[in-house]
Amino acid sequence: MQVKDIVLSINTVEPGLVKAVKKHSQEMGRDLKGLVLVNADFANKPDRPRDTTGLFKEVVCDFYNLNELQKALQPYTDNLLAVTCRLEAAIQPLRQVIPFLPYVDTTSETSLLWSTEKPLMRDRLSNYDRSLTPRYQYMEATDLPRVKELIGDFRFPVIVKPSSLAKSLLVAECKDMKELEVCLIETFEIIDEVYAREHRRSAPSVLVEEMMQGDMYSTDAYVTKDGEVFCLPLVKVITAHAVGLPGFYGFQIVTPTGLPQAEVNAAFKVSTAAIKALNLSSTTTHIELFHTSHGWKIIEVGARIGGYREAIYREAFGIEHFYNDLAIRMGKKPVMPTEPIRHATGLNIYADEEGIIEAIEGLDAASRLPSVAFVEKHARPGDQALFASNGGELIVDAILSNEDPKRLERDVAELLRLVKIKVTQNPN
Predict the structure, then answer these.
(1) Looking at residue 76, what DSSP letter applies?
(2) 313 vs 203, more confident
(3) Is residue 369 within 8 Å of 410, Cβ to Cβ?
(4) How confident is the model at residue 251 (pLDDT cuts 50, 70, 90)?
(5) Helix H or strand E encompassing 313
């Protein structure tokens, strides 16, 4: 009988995954090994998370050359114990890999497709339960002359969002038909460039949706191979739009939320329905929701750990997210939290203006604040600063936590005061 002792990751390896493999290895009483399969067009990405411990062996190949992919996996196929991936950009490569993983529990290629392509996701959710989603319309560049015909009876404002991008890139609000027409033209002028940068291979397209009114929340949920769902505590998402900043990215995330248990249960019920609609199994899911006057509505469902959720769940509840992610992929039950141990928040910071970054200041002082778990920059002087709605990426992020919510609130305000992103305007 073949020994199942290899954990496969797609494209990236984060420290939390290495820690999780080591803990499972210790609990199982046998040595587990790691393998990270990296798509050739992702291998030279300078900031991709890599294993520095030596636990994960790295293999680079072209995922879209099936002969090359099969040969790369062949030495390991019989020994694979579990497969996981963290980033949205790794979901499509994982779809390519799944046919060559016959002896590993994983969700299907089709369910992964439904979880990444927003029009297909909306179709499945709406067909499963019409109340889960807002009204929507799929559009390609060739549909631009027919905007009024396709959207004419929609209720404004509407939201424009690319079909297969994450991080709220190119998401924009349009208050009337004129704004929508301009927005769609501008979006399709730059969408090819952003798709290429984010390693998306599908044809660029967008969804136009009637805008939901309410508060945004998220949960990560574990789904076993038998379809049992375990929802983690809700996280409140304060969007940039909600605080008067450009774009719809998550400016701040907060947990615990303080919502009544009845509302939490209702959110979990809707989240479970969305998971069932997409037929997801043997995976962690990241679910974004709106709490509206007409109940909970699904924004989207991703077949992966959510951004910053490993850090914020660890700080607030002591949850080992990567450990649980591997557990359910190996047929085990996750270890669920009880009461919160701290209040926690995360911040995503963009420049106040677009242009060329001149300096990023205040990070050292911010890192010394009592509540700060980490604060990091993701750009440097000379890089271009763009709003998320124009395809830009965040410049600084941070996670903070404290047993005292008032102290946490003061440290968040102080961090935002300290961190300064100085920008020189682009020449005309």
Answers:
(1) T
(2) 313
(3) no
(4) very high
(5) helix 309-317
Give the chain's domains with CATH numbers.
6-104 (3.40.50), 135-210 (3.30.1490.20), 215-424 (3.30.470.20)
**DSSP E strand boundaries for 170-294:** 172-174, 206-210, 215-223, 229-231, 235-239, 250-255, 283-292
The radius of gyration of the chain's CA atoms, rounded to the nearest angstrom, is 21
Q: What does the pLDDT look like over 114-142, one tens digit per residue?
A: 998 888 999 999 999 998 988 889 999 99
pLDDT at position 212: 85
CA–CA gap between residue 393 and residue 397 (Å, rounded): 11
Distance separating alpha carbons of residues 325 and 222, to the nearest angstrom: 7
What residue ranges in 211-326 does DSSP mark as E strands? 215-223, 229-231, 235-239, 250-255, 283-292, 295-302
pTM of full prediction above 0.85: yes
Handedness of CA 165, 426, 47, 421 (dihedral sign): negative
DSSP for 340-383, written as a single string: -SSEEEEEEE--SS-EEEEEEE-HHHHHTSTTEEEEEE---TTS
Point out which residues pair with 355 in neighbouring strands: 385
Torsions phi, psi for 200 (to 5 deg): -95, 130
Residue with tokens 């047993």: 403
Supply the angle between the helices 309-317 and 321-329 in degrees, to the nearest 10: 110
> What is the per-residue burial (b if ≥16 Cβ within 10 Å, else e) of 215-246?
bbbbbbbbbbeeeebbbbbbbbbbbbbeeebb
Q: What is the predicted pLDDT for the residue at 294?
A: 85
* Over residues 79-99, mean pLDDT: 94
Of 25-29, 61-65, 389-393, 423-427, the poorest mean pLDDT is in: 423-427
pLDDT at residue 134, as a whole number:
84
Examine the pLDDT at 46 and tell me if it is beyond 90. no
C-alpha to C-alpha distances, 86 to 89, 286, 342, nearest whole angstrom: 9, 11, 25
Q: At residue 30, what are phi and psi to the nearest 5 degrees?
A: -150, 155
Residue 13 has phi, psi (to 5 degrees) of: -135, 120
- Region of poorest pLDDT, from 105-119, 188-202, 357-371: 188-202
Amino acid found at 61: C
Nearest to 134 by CA among 154, 112, 114: 154
